[in-house]
Each structure stands twice: as C-alpha cells, then as structure tokens.
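Z., the sequence and structure:
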Amino acid sequence: MPVVDSQVIYKDLEAKKLKPVYFFFGDEPFLLNQIPDRFKAAVLSESTFDFNFASFYAADTEVGVIKDTVETLPVMSQHRLVILKNAHELKEAEWSELQSLWSNPVESTVFVVLADKVDKRKKGVKSLMDAAVSAEFKKPYDNQVPQWINYLAQNFELKFSKEATHRLHRLVGNNLSELSNQIEKIKNFLNGKSVVDVQDVNSVVSNSKEESVFDFTRAIGKKDRVLALEQLVSLIDQGQSEIGIVSLLARHMRILLTIRSGMDQGIGGAKLASMAQVPAYFIEGYCDQARLWPVKKIEEALVVLSDTDRALKSSPVSSHIWLENMVLKSCSL
C-alpha cells in the first residue's frame, strides 16, 4: 500500500474504521510516541483493556511470542491491540518469521508496528509496507517549525506572538519533544496568562546547544573567523559531537548555496525562503550571508567540510585541530 498521511489514519481511528496492520516509521520520535495512546483510545475499552492489550520491544521479545499474542482471540471485545516497538532492530530472519502476520492478517487483532528510520528497500520492510497501512514521520523542516509551535501551543491553550515563535524556534530548533517540553514550562510560568511574548520565552527557555550552533554557523556564514572560533570552543565545551558540528555546518552551507543560486536568478522573498525550506523571517539574514559567498566558494567550503568529516572519522590527529583548520579554511575562501 502507498504511504498515507497520518491525519487520514487518525480520522479513520476516530470513526472506528480499523485495519488489521499498521506501520509507522521515521526519525521524529515525538510523533511516533503518540501512536500507542491514539490506538488504545480507538481500539480498547477500559473494562477489557488488561485482557486485550500487549506491547513488545523487538530486541527484547522472541518472535514466537509476538506471533502467538497477535493470533490470540480477544476477550469480551471485538479487537485486541498488539504494538511492536523498535522494529528497525529486527533481524532479516525475524522479519521473515513475522511476515505471515501481515500477509495473512488476523482480522480480530489490530497489529501496530513502530520503527525509527528504515531502509525501505529491505525485503522485510517492503513486504510490510506492501500489506500495511503505513505513515512516515519526518523531522519538520525549519520553515514548518512555526506551524508546529502554534499547534503545540494550542494543546496548552497558549498563543505565541510572532516574535515569541521566532525566539523559541531559535533557542530550541526543530526538536518537537523539546519544543513541547519548553511550551509546557512556559505554560506553568505564565500562571494563567494565555498570550506568550518574547520576554516570556527568554525567561523560561535557557540558551541551548541549538542556539550556540546557530551562532556558530552564522559566524561562518559571515566569514567572522574570530567569532566562529569562539563559538566552536563553546560547542565543544557543551559536549557537542565534532561530527555533528560538521554536519550542521554543511547543512547551513547547503542552505546558503540554494539561496545564493536563487538570488543569482533574481528570486527573493517568500519564494526564496520556500526554495531553501527556511522560515520567511530568517531569509534576510541568510541573504546577507549568501551575498558574501559566490556559488563556487560555497562549493569549495562543502569540499572542506567533507574532507574534515572524513578526517574526524579516520585520522589520529586531535579532532580539535581538524575543526579549527576547518574554520580557518572556510572563513578565508
């Protein structure tokens, strides 16, 4: 079956239109973690919950136990619910053993399989996706984060000003779990107030690694070597992964490459922000940086980053030296 929008599945759940097998996967744990509660509410009744619900972790459970549980008839209920978590940890042979559960599903059981990012080309994953109702949860792009902040805020009966949304995004990034946690803290801090302004965000949310990373990538974007080296030291002191630093900077440079290419074609404003998949309120800052970087220089910087990534993974030389060398080379292009 084709991968469908999760909202379609949720509407079917509310209408009690249940299918025997579901597969949810992706690299956004916040959304994956909500799945069990949604299915419990749709499938089970409080009076028979204990008889008809089972949850397993793939690495901790024998495949035979999972099969037996799925094939067990429900007790005083139309359906039983079985959830298998972390299915990405299944071995290929285990995928094969479980295949009968979706190729010949048990109609009286709702079997929900959850996994992190998976290789869709693998035989076991492909067979499940061919048979199950599937949805993928991806981490939101930067330009989608403001909408998520507004959505999460509604869950706490809050409304963020545009400036407060911008600030929370800057401080936390696109981690939905952390965004939800910080919005909950803001809710408790406000003590009855419903509108969140930028001062409220500053009072509750401390500068996180994401803020420091933003400052670091922006310093590189502005070719400010001294500030970039200072921010690099701060990131290392915070325990940020060296390879992660390179990855985040590479992402920033790819955004600048898209923006500079668009600017060279005469594209600007909201259209350019959409092309680069960044919020419109960030676009001017990115444009200011992109003006300092001809396309060829950005491509050269990406080569430097690729070489640094390779060196960090294989060279015996101190990682700090490679990172400092990366900053010096990048800012001098």
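The radius of gyration is 24 Å. Strands lie at 21-26, 53-57, 80-85, 109-115, 133-137, 159-160, 195-196.

Let me know what you think.
H.
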